Amino acid sequence: MRVLGVDPGLTRCGLGVVDGGGGRAVSCVAVDVVRTLPDAPLARRLLEVSDAVESWIGVHRPDVVAIERVFSQHNVRTVMGTAQASGVVAVAAARAGLPVAFHTPSEVKAAVTGAGRADKQQVTAMVARVLGLTEAPRPADAADALALAICHCWRAPMLDRMAQAEARAAELARRHKARLAAAAKGASS
Question: What residues make up the catalytic site (predicted)?
Answer without folding.
Answer: 7, 68, 141
